[in-house]
Structures are given as structure tokens and as C-alpha cells.
Design a protein that fits this description.
- This protein has two domains: about 1-110 and about 230-299, FAD/NAD(P)-binding domain, CATH 3.50.50; about 115-230, FAD/NAD(P)-binding domain.
- Helix content is about 20%, strand content about 30%.
- The chain contains five helices and 17 strands.
- It has helices at about 10-25, 55-70, 130-135, 150-160, 280-299; strands at about 1-10, 30, 75, 80-85, 90-95, 100-105, 110, 130, 145, 165-170, 190-195, 195-205, 205-215, 215-220, 225-230, 230-235, 265.
- Strand 4 and strand 5 form a beta hairpin.
- Helix 1 packs parallel to helix 2 (about 55-70).
- The chain starts with a strand and ends with a helix.
């Protein structure tokens, strides 16, 4: 099956790209391996997306999907296993079939690295969060913990210290690559636990404590929320050697959405350096959809 534009990934960025490309008069298909909306479906409540005071991730994902369907955009539910981007017509090989297009947009997103400890899945979306900016307000005036050692952990701690009663920063090692003011570490409501390794999250209906190991001894802190900040990971294994990737596997773009291969674009969380928010993913998608449409019209 051949299209003008194939979009790989049906999350916020991919659906936005599809809508803009379709409205530009192109024959568009979105390949999504699980469910439309991507990571949105794992967010319990969203209150920072303009136009909705509060909405669940599943509801917002459904709004995006219905908007795309109203534009007669084709959804292909399949998983991409390989691509050939070396010719004018790009080839996308999936588990169930093969597809081709004049232009391809990768909107693969990324997922947060997990702690893989007891209680993490039980309280995911119910106290365990992977985005302080998204969920911090739910824990206003509460005690919370941030787990991580890099810039994200430090910036999350800085952000949460302004709205939470107390913030514990649990880090395996010395904080590294800090680009922010170290004054935050002297704040009265911030406590850094160096050398602590998270062990399990406890609670009944809600989180009550985070248990960790330090110097061979088990200790715990009383918290209502645990913010995991140990990095994000894109699903770009099949793109190695096909487009330029960063050391961490994110797609390197120039001019915002253009990859190292002509006719191949990327948008949203899969792009190196892009802010990982729904609103920015939608904006990236719009740009990618229009740029891909211009490319197809030109050729």
C-alpha cells in the first residue's frame, strides 16, 4: 500500500502531524502498534493542556483519535520492524505487511525509564509519576521523593520544592551535569540522600513510604508521591544506521523536524532536546505535517 505520507506513531505528535498533512491534501496513514494516543493512555489526569481544565489521558487520546478519523485519516495497527529510507520511495516493513510513501514522519515518542522495584506498577499514576511538571500540583503541600542523579532529577527537585512541603532527593551518587543553581540544595524543605538505592514503595490505597538501602541498611521516608527521574528512552532500535541518532537513541533533527535523510521527518518526544510535553508534541506534529506536505508537493 502506497501513501504520500506515512506517520509512524499515533500519539499526540503523530496524530497532529496526520491532521495537518491531511488538510494539506495528502494521502496519509498513521501506523500505531498499540492504541491511538500513545503515552496519553497511561496518564490518569491532565490539567496543563490548554483548553481542558482537567481531563484524563484516555479521554484526551480519544479526542485526538476522533479528530483524526473525522479527517478520514487511515490508521494501520501494526508494529514496524524495519525501514528502507535510502530511495525516493520509502519502505516501511511491519509484522503484518509492508507500506511505502514519498515521505515518512517518525513520531515514536519515548518512555520513562523505570525503577523496576516493588510497588512501582501498583502506584503508577496513583502516586508514582515520571513528570514533575505534569503531576507536581497533585502533591501540593505534601512530602514527596525524587529518585535520580542527573539534571532532570535536580530540576524536578527545584520545581517541586516550590509547591511541596518537603522534597527528598534520593540519588545513588553525587549529582552530575548540574546546570542549575546549587542554591536549591540549601533550601530548608529539600533533603538530599546521597548513596540511597530505592528498594520498594509501600502503601495501601495510596503511597505511604519509600524504602531504600544505604550503606547496607534499610531505611525509609514518609512520602505521598515518588517522582522517577532516571531518564527517558526512545523506541528507535530499528532506526540505527538509517537516520542520525544521538548517543541516547533520540533522533537528531535540524530545522526543528528534518532528519539527516531527505524526505524523513521526526516530531515529539523522539527528537533530541525537545521538551517532553503534550502541547509541544502537538506543535511539533503540526510543523512536521506541513513540512512533509511541502516536500511531497515539491517532488
Amino acid at each position: 500500500m502506497e501513501f504520500d505520507i506515512i506517520i509512524v506513531g499515533g500519539g499526540a505528535a503523530g496524530i497532529s502531524a496526520g491532521i495537518y498533512a491531511k488538510r494539506a491534501g495528502k494521502n496519509v496513514a498513521i501506523i500505531e502498534k498499540v492504541v491511538p494516543g500513545g503515552q496519553l493512555n497511561y496518564i490518569s489526569e491532565i490539567n496543563n493542556y490548554t483548553g481542558f481544565v482537567s481531563i484524563s489521558g484516555v479521554e484526551l487520546a480519544n479526542h485526538f483519535y476522533m479528530h483524526a478519523k473525522s479527517n478520514d485519516i487511515k490508521f494501520i495497527f501494526d508494529e514496524v520492524v524495519d525501514v528502507d529510507l535510502s530511495h525516493d520511495i520509502k519502505n516501511i516493513k511491519c509484522k503484518k505487511g509492508e507500506y511505502s510513501a514519498k515521505a515518512v514522519i517518525f513520531a515514536l515518542g519515548s518512555h520513562s525509564r523505570e525503577l523496576n522495584i516493588e510497588g512501582e506498577q501498583k502506584f503508577r499514576g496513583k502516586g508514582v509519576s515520571y513528570c514533575a511538571v505534569c503531576d507536581g500540583n497533585f502533591f501540593r503541600d505534601e512530602n514527596v521523593a525524587v529518585v535520580g542523579s542527573g539534571d532532570t532529577a535536580f530540576s524536578d527537585t527545584a520545581y517541586l520544592s516550590n509547591i511541596c512541603k518537603k522534597v527528598y532527593l534520593l540519588t545513588k551518587e553525587e549529582l552530575k551535569n548540574i546546570n542549575y543553581s546549587t542554591d536549591i540544595l540549601s533550601k530548608a524543605n529539600v533533603e538530599v540522600i546521597k548513596g540511597g538505592i530505592s528498594s520498594r514503595i509501600e502503601g495501601e490505597d495510596e503511597i505511604s513510604k519509600l524504602v531504600y538501602i544505604k550503606e547496607g541498611k534499610e531505611k525509609s521516608i514518609d512520602v505521598k508521591g515518588v517522582f522517577v527521574a532516571i531518564g527517558r528512552q526512545p523506541s528507535t532500535q530499528f532506526l540505527k544506521g538509517k537516520v542520525k541518532l544521538s548517543d541516547k537513541g533520540f533522533i537528531v533533527c535540524h530545522d526543528q523536524v528534518k532528519t539527516s535523510v531527505e524526505g524523513v521527518f521526526a516530531c515529539g518526544d523522539v527528537c533530541e532536546g525537545h521538551i517532553k510535553q503534550i502541547v509541544s508534541a502537538v506543535g511539533d506534529g503540526a510543523v512536521a505535517g506541513l513540512e512533509a506536505s511541502k516536500f511531497v508537493s515539491k517532488i
